[in-house]
Each structure stands twice: as structure tokens, then as C-alpha cells.
Amino acid sequence: MAKAIAEQSNSLSIFFLKKHGYFPRGGGVKNGTITWTWGLSGNKNSIGIYVFSGPANDPGYIKLNYTQTNRWSGEKSDMNYKVKLTSTPCNYGGVRYWFICPLTKNGSYCGRRVGVLYGVDKWFGCRDCANIAYLAQFEGGKLRTGSLCEPDVEKAYDEVKRKYYDGKPTKKYQRYLRLREKMDMVWIKAARKFGHEF
Fold first, then answer.
1. Is 198 domain-assigned?
2. What does DSSP assign to residue 141?
3. Angle between the 171-193 and 150-158 helix axes, to the nearest 10 degrees?
């Protein structure tokens, strides 16, 4: 089965939930809805989330509620299931929460500790169980250098709305310049390897 692309998949991030107050200090219950909107089509998917978090010795779980429509038959399934949470201590106090992947792969329970769950068929699971890869992993050959590729630099440039503010470079422009410099150094090293001098 071909791998799906992470950036094009419905994903649920523990970091997003924390940023939006789903893990109050000391634990508690919080619920809400996340909606994904897809590009030019404007198609929307949403999921109801109920987070039951507790102290480190009982991190709790999340409940996911949504309706999944089979893309071939159009049949709808109401989904309502739990994903266990675990936690690890932070250096300066408190805990960091993680999902425990609820899926099975090759007949055995995954149970992997992950920060992001991805939609796979009508379930959510880790990248490995969902057979998902990052877009950068599909970009190979001469444009890729480690974790950086030319499209990454171009994307950073496209995100720059304003280069300078009050005579100083903006953060997005500084990020682009760092990536551009890193990519240029990679090209120079590659050229030297093949006998070109600068």
C-alpha cells in the first residue's frame, strides 16, 4: 500500500491541544471541536474531543467523537472511542502528555507513545500504523540535503510578508535567510566535492 502524506492527512496533535488549554494544570475535563478545511475545495472534517487529564500517576485519556463517511459506499459510521494518555516529567516541573497509539499492526497492539495521531480509514493512529510519511521524505535526489531541501527554502520565502520592520529584519525573513544560507553552503560543499572552486 502506498504511503499517504502527513501534511495532507487529518492529524491531532498533543501540542495543539496543550496550546489551546485542553490540559489544565493539575488535570481536569475539557471538550471542544477541531475542524480541518481542505484547500480550494473548502471541504471540512470535524471531530469532537473530550480530554480527561489527571496527575502523572493517572494521565487519563481522550475520547474522539465523529462521523466517518466511507468514500466508496457513502455509508456513515459514528465513531466514539478512547485513546489512552501517558505522561513524562518535565525538567522544570509539571508533565508532558503523549498519546498511546490505539491501533494494531500485523496482529499486535501498537501502544507507541506519540505526539501526533493521524487519520487512517476511520481510526486515528501513529504514523507507522497509518502508513504515513512526511512530504519531505518523498523529495529525493539532488534537491534534498539531510532534513532541508530547496522547496523548504522557497516555502520560507513565500511566507515572508514583510522583510523589515523598524529597520530590522522580521522573524520570518530572518528564518528564510538562515535557511537560504544553510542551503547555499550545502551547494558549495557539493560543488567542491566535484572539483569546483569558489
1. no
2. G
3. 160
